[in-house]
Structure formats: C-alpha cells, structure tokens
Amino acid sequence: MKFSRPLFSTFALLLALITFAPFVASAAATNGSLLVYFGTYTRAKSKGIYVARFDPATGKLTTPELAAETRNPSFLAVEPAKRFLYSVGEIDELNGKPTGAVNAFSLNRETGKLQFLNQQPSGGAGPCHVSVDPTGKCVLVANYGSGSVAALPILEDGKLGPAGSVIQHFGSSVNPERQTGPHAHFIVTAPDKELALVCDLGLDKILLYRLEASRANLTASQPPFVAIKPGSGPRHLAFAPSGRFAYLINEMGGTLTVLQYDRARATLTEAQTISTLPADFKGKNTCAEVQVHPSGKFVYASNRGHDSIALFKIDPASGKLTFVEHQSTLGKTPRHFALDPSGDWLLAENQESDNVVVFHVDPASGRLSPTGQQIEIGSPVCSLFVPADAR
Q1: Distance between CA atoms of 224 and 99, rounded to whole angstroms?
Q2: How far is the CA of 50 from the CAs of 37, 141, 176, 283, in angstroms?
C-alpha cells in the first residue's frame, strides 16, 4: 500500500501526537507556573503576605504584590487541597490577652490573592511556626515567646476553630541568656501522621506528642522527648522522603543532627552531629532553616552571620551527611529558604537585606549556582510554593 506524501505526513504527525501526548501533558503540568507566598515582618518596607509568580522552566520570579495585609505573618502553611492558607501573627498580645494569633485565608490560585477568613489566639506569645497536618483537619502552632504549642481545628469553610489543645512547656537549659525557659520554635507531624514533633530551643529537646487531628488533640507520647546536646538550641527539622531519617538544625550550636526515626516505636536516635560552618569561621552565627532535597540525596542548611547555605550529601544507607559546599546567599541573614517542588531551584530569603535570591540546583551534585534573579521584599522570613491555576 502506498501513501502520498501529504497523507503520510499527516499520519506520521497524528502518530507522534498520540505517542508523545502523555509526555506533553506531563511536561505541561511540571512546567506550569507556581505561586510563591512570602511571609514577612511588617516593618517599614512590608505590610503583610506577598505573592509572586515563579516559572519553573526559567527560575524567573515576577515582582511581588501584596496578597493580604496582616501583622508579622512570619510563617505560612497551606492545607493539602491548596484552598486555604494559614499564617502566624507573631505578636505578644491579642484582644488584651498575652497571646499571639493564627490567621486563616482563602486562597485564589488564579489571581494569587488571599481573602481573610478569621483569626484565633495561638495559645501563647510570639508564635513563630505553623503547619497543617497531612489530613487537613488541624493547624499546629509553636509559640516561641511563651514556650507553648497548640492545635486548632480547621472547619469546613477553612476557618479556624478555638484551640482543641494548648500545652505549656516547662524547664530550662544551660545558656543563661537564651535558655532560662522554654521556647517552642517548630511543630510538624511525622510521616506516620499521628505523631507531632516540637523543637524547643530553650529546653534542648524535641518533644513528642500523639496527634488526634480530627479533634485537634495533642497528648504526650512515650517516650515524651528526645534530648539534644545542651546548648544546641534545636530550631527546625526536616524528614527525608523515605521517612527513615530526620535532620535537625541547631540554631545556637551551629550544627546539624542526623536522627534515625523508628516509626513503630515513635523514637528518634542520634546518628551524627556535624557543623554547618567552615572550620576557620570566627564570627557570630546562628542557624535557621533545614530542608531535604526531593530526591532524598541532599540536605541544605542556612547560616545567619556567615550568610550562607551549607550543602551536604546523604548516605542512603545510614542517613549520615558529608559536607559538599557553602554558597553565599548574596544577602544578609537568610532566616529561611525553600526548594521548589521539582528540586531544580532554591529561593533564599535574606531578612536583613530585604531580598529573595534564586539559585539553580544541579541535579547530580546538589550544588547551588546564582541565576541572577532576585526580587526585593521587606524583611522576608518565609516562602511557600503553591501550584497556580491558569489565567
């Protein structure tokens, strides 16, 4: 059977489209634009939560716009369906009472705008971290100022109900300036979804709680905590994709601690502690953020003072780390940074130089290289990627 050239060309084109349609659809989904929300301290150059669009094909960020005006939304979280966004209000007083706030917003993934829904007390002073449990039923918040944690139910309309649990920590550790009392700095659920882990900088502990998300209820687990080296100041942690290892950044000690996670026993066991700084560094430094690459091959940690991101390679069998490099964040005081969902890009938020800098991530080595892309935002202290709807 012979085909004329035009007919053959049409047939070949149709065949190619059928063959590669799944690839094209996947690529389109992967390369779709993302919204990036930025939490800030509302000083002279900031009024609240900002939003920009991010192109994962080029690493380009658009000029940020104000998404919602609110006071000191220093940390942000989004629920699994990406319909609602939650922020802390890092304040010490609300309605005449010594407590901070947690704010609920509806999220328009087409325009990027946020609509305020309601506000609840955070159950303590100076809330600095918020997360949403994987079922999307409750918000967890850590209050640095008072050293307490709370769980708040998420209602059907995205609003927050009053806290179902508020737990006050007690105790101290060895540093007379920063550890005379508890300072809860971070709260997140473990991969099994039923255990909440709290980093308390003032106690040098990771406290463990059983979480009943449907009731926003926290109760002490057994064992109730993991002790960290005195004076370390545990701040944030991140789990490897496998769920077998967690990586803890210690703000005061300038170190990363590798923890092996036993899901059945709900325990964490220290496997390694390694410095985040060059051996010859003599200045003042406090660590801030830690994240694991989506591939599970690399860990990144930020240094404030050295103003860098430290890169480590993960041994897949033991979870232990090997240092790779330090990369300047091209700004001052990188309080936070975030990897995009693909793991191809990293955004570093430099709090004291009011800029967010984009780095490309080499997939083979994990090394960072500046792209030349950066934007100005007043006192940026958190960034959060959310898939955008087409406009």
Answers
A1: 25
A2: 6, 21, 37, 33
Handedness of CA 207, 210, 212, 215 (dihedral sign): negative
Strands 195-200 and 205-212: antiparallel
CB atoms within 10 A of CB 388: 20
Number of domains observed in the structure of the chain: 1
**Whole-structure pTM value:** 0.91
Distance CA 357, CA 347 (A): 6
CB-side exposure of 52: number of CA atoms within 13 Å?
A: 21
Chain position carrying tokens 């980093």? 199
Q: Please choose, from the candidates 271, 273, 332, 337, the residue with its C-alpha nearest in 3D space to the C-alpha of residue 301.
A: 337
Residue 275 lies in a domain: no
Residue 131 lies in a domain: yes
Residues whose CB is less than 8 angstroms from the CB of residue 139 and which lie 6 or more positions away in sequence, other chains included: 77, 86, 102, 130, 131, 132, 133, 151, 152, 154, 160
The predicted pLDDT at position 391 comes to 59
The answer as to whether 175 is a domain residue is yes
Structure tokens at 244: 């077998």
What are the φ/ψ torsions at residue 113 (nearest 5 degrees)?
-75, 155
What is the spatial distance between Cα 338 and Cα 290, in angstroms, rounded to a whole number? 9
Note whether residue 36 is domain-resident: no
Range of the domain at 118: 70-227
List the single range of 15-19, 183-187, 312-316 with lowest mean pLDDT. Answer: 15-19
Which residue's entry shows tokens 């690459």?
A: 293
List the structure tokens of 388.
Answer: 């955008």
Q: Please work out, in degrees rounded to the nearest 5, the angle formed at the alpha carbon of residue 135 by the alpha carbons of 132 and 137.
A: 65
CATH number at residue 118: 2.130.10.10
Structure tokens at 119: 């506000």
- pLDDT per residue over 103-157, tens digit each? 999 999 999 999 999 999 999 999 999 999 999 999 999 999 999 999 999 999 9
Residue 20 buriedness (CB in 10 A; 0-12 / 13-18 / 19+): exposed
The b/e string for 359-382 (b: 16+ C-beta within 10 A; e otherwise) is bebeeeebebeebebbbebbbbbb
pLDDT band at 92 (very low <50, low <70, confident <90, very high): confident
Q: What is the pLDDT, as a whole number, of residue 390?
A: 65
Kindly report the number of other CB atoms within 10 A of residue 172's CB atom: 14
